Amino acid sequence: MTGPAGEREIPADPPALRDQHGQLWSWPPVAPPSPDALGAGHGIPHDGGSVPTRCWLFFLPGAFTPVCTAELGWVDELAERLAPAGVGLRVVSCDSAAVLRKAADETGIRTPLLSDFWPHGAAARAVGAFNEATGRARRSSVLMDAVGTVRARIHAAAGDERRLQDHLDALPGEWSTGSR
Q: Where are stretches of biased composition, namely Basic and acidic residues (predicted)?
């Protein structure tokens, strides 16, 4: 389900997100860290070779849960389909960077996996995607532009998988990927 959009989501203290290689990403994590900072072959975003001007923040409750593992099976395809429209994809979880590195290594995912481990859940809280009762992110996706304005939201109930097509359908018309 798509929720309200149009609000700006720049917290007073921006979250500190690190990718599966330990590289710090700025908030909102639309543009990747510079390739020079990443080092050869590490953390190169799967954005089709272009620098995105907006991105989906794809929150996972936990990298190794059954539903999250199923969703991770199609995130690279989604990233490839979003890239022509200048839209990146960033998978965000409260798991540590080490856990996300293991998930990336085991699945072969090229899409950036960002750790919202400490301060715990700060990015998820900043966009209303944190579940205080479980201490984990909700299964939510938040489409943000480079200045932090939320353009769309997708939520799935606990135990339900989001759909790749919902992310394409939720793009504003002017951001069309041509693959709807």
A: 1-21
